[in-house]
Design goal:
By secondary structure, the chain is of the alpha/beta class. It folds into 2 domains: about 130 residues, Aspartate Aminotransferase, domain 1; about 220 residues, Type I PLP-dependent aspartate aminotransferase-like (Major domain) (Aspartate Aminotransferase, domain 2). It contains 12 helices and 13 strands. A 7-stranded mixed sheet has the order 2-8-7-6-5-3-4, sandwiched between helices. Strands 9-10-13-12 form a 4-stranded antiparallel sheet. A two-stranded parallel sheet has the order 1-11. α3 packs parallel to α9. The termini are far apart. The model has no long low-confidence stretch (mean pLDDT about 95). Bound molecules: pyridoxal-5'-phosphate. Pyridoxal-5'-phosphate binds next to α4.
């Protein structure tokens, strides 16, 4: 056997939410509702669809390695320089690029737990050491514990906001206080994958902090509210020096052309974004009421997903729901054994979920 690198010895492959087609095939079901991967139940903007169709004529050509159209569109949206953006095949790829750029063997990075598992994987692949700190009693990142864990080996701090899977947020004031206390040679990654969904006036305006801090990277994605998860496009916003370093590591054509075209077109459709926010807010209220009626505890959500305590073995409930054609995320992967993470769907999908949940519980 060919010897692999020691750093991957105990790494588990990422376990994605089950695809609809697989569940249909395995269980012989014709109707399957997937509320497992925090995708947009409305799909994507019709403008994105048109851009993808138009792009097919150019499928033989390499993409623009600079993502010029998308870069310029975002630069003018945020009133920043185009050189403050870096694009990736999803923010997943940007996390890899950040780790490859900044982590030397033995360096430490800090994350909450449960939080987004890729922070751990990208750290360990680079032979770094991941420090996972428990959430507070109200399921939020414990920024004080993060500060206490900093030492001379600390290189990166991963702030998932809203936190996946708990949906809780760090406020503007908390984030400011935290950043004031982080040494400036430590990189703070502000992962805001669910940014557009958050309807809370205390949520940070992180992009404005770029004027004050040289050690932060803000991450956003087109996978969530823009509904382009299948095309893979996300972006980092930071200062020009950090972006220039990340660009040394980035592959030449890392964002495909269809994704670039669809993302740029999506930015012009803020009506779609508003519709997505509305359906998410209404779905959230419906699910809150249903959980309350069922006597189930839930964590108030800021993204497009809710953690609910079903007070039973989550893997079993997950399997029982699957048999009824409903795919959710079992909390056991987050060490929350009695919990399910449920993506907020359309009204019809939410009703199917609640009826199935009532019957399996
Ligand atoms: C917190 C967080 N960050 C990053 C990602 C990766 O998103 P993508 O690679 O699709 O942009 C996700 C996806 O679920 C996420 O929840």
């Amino acid at each position: 056997m060919i010897k692999y690198r020691k750093t991957i010895e105990n790494l588990e492959p990422y376990k994605p939410g089950k695809p609809i087609s697989e569940v249909k095939r395995e269980l012989g079901l014709s109707d399957v509702v997937k509320l497992a991967s925090n995708e947009n139940p409305l799909g994507c903007s019709p403008r994105a669809v048109k851009a993808i169709v138009d792009w097919t004529n150019d499928a033989a050509l390499y993409p623009d390695g600079n993502c010029t159209e998308l870069r310029n569109a975002l630069a003018s949206k945020f009133n920043l320089s185009p050189s403050q953006f870096l694009f990736g095949a999803g923010t997943d790829q940007i996390l890899e690029i950040i780790a490859q750029t900044y982590i030397n063997p033995g360096d430490e990075t800090i994350m909450g737990w449960p939080s987004f598992s890729r922070y751990e994987a990208v750290t360990r692949i680079m032979d770094g050491i991941i420090i996972k700190l428990p959430l507070t009693d109200d399921y939020r990142l414990d920024l004080d514990a993060f500060l206490d864990a900093i030492n001379e080996k600390t290189r990166i701090i991963w702030v998932c906001n809203p936190n996946n899977p708990t949906g809780t947020i760090i406020t503007e004031q908390e984030q400011r206080e935290f950043l004031k206390n982080v040494p400036e040679n430590i990189l703070v990654v502000l992962d805001e994958a669910y940014y557009e969904y958050v309807q809370n006036s205390n949520y940070p305006r992180s992009v404005e902090l770029l004027n004050e801090y040289d050690n932060i990277i803000v991450l956003r994605t087109f996978s969530k509210i823009y509904g382009l998860a299948g095309l893979r496009v996300g972006y980092a916003i930071s200062n020009e020096n950090i972006i220039a370093c990340l660009n040394r590591v980035r592959g030449p054509f890392n964002v495909n052309a269809a994704a670039q075209a669809a993302a740029a077109a999506s930015l012009n459709d803020q009506e779609f974004v508003q519709d997505s926010i509305k359906i998410n807010q209404e779905g959230k209220q419906y699910l809150y009421r249903a959980f309350k009626d069922m006597g189930l505890e839930y964590i108030p959500a800021n993204g497009n997903f809710i953690m609910v305590n079903v007070e039973k073995d989550s893997l079993q409930v997950f399997k029982d729901l699957l048999l009824k054609g409903v795919i959710v995320r079992s909390g056991d992967i987050f060490d929350m054994d009695n919990w399910l993470r449920i993506t907020i769907g359309t009204p019809e999908q939410n009703t199917v979920l609640i009826n199935a949940l009532k019957s399996v519980l």
